[in-house]
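Friendly challenge for the regulars: who can give me the structure tokens for this chain first? No prize, just bragging rights.
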Amino acid sequence: MEWLIPVLIVVALVLVIGIYLWATYNSLVTLNVRVDEAWSDITVQLKRRADLIPNLIEAVKGYAAHEKSVFESVTQARAETLQAQGPAEAGAAENHMQQALKSIFAVAEAYPQLQASQNFLQLQSELVDTEDKIQASRRFYNGGVRELNTKIKVFPNTLFVRGLGFHERDFFEVTEPAAIAEPPRVQF
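First reply, four minutes later:
Bragging rights claimed.
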């Protein structure tokens, strides 16, 4: 009978550890899926913006066809955005896109007829809406990454979660905060 108490203590301890591991694993899977979903939301919004860019270029081109370098930089930034793999590359592409959009809107400011064009105004409105959605998706993604990374780094999780295939994720950050400090001005 004396051996029963130590056995029950060991069984209870194994049960508590098992429940902890099960709960931790499930919460990490949930956070991982949430981060993947949030990244998917970002890529959808980046694609939506990239789809608007050719229309915006065409609208501006009709009034300022001689601004070839501006159109080339916007086209290049669009290509970088579409080819970006992961948050680090997307952050760098985001810097280039913001600079390119600023330059195209600077060109547009010189043409009052363009700013009065219904098509251009609609494209500007859609672009502003898309930029807002990108920022919201980015905040959601970075929040999920923060939760996942914290869960991975806390003790005792840090001892075993990497062995289960979980790893820290990168935040979606821009490499040049000054590039997005002031969003492209859209004047109606």
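The mean pLDDT is 85. The CA atoms of residues 14 and 52 lie 57 Å apart. Your move, everyone else.
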